[in-house]
Amino acid sequence: MGLYATLQDALVECRRCGAGNRGDWQFYYGEVSSLPRYRVGDTIRWDGSPQYGGPATPLVFAVAYPDSPEACSHCGAEFLCEVRIDNGRIVDCHYLTDQTFLPELVYEGTERIPRSRKDLAGP
Question: Tell me, what's the pLDDT at 11?
Answer without folding.
Answer: 95
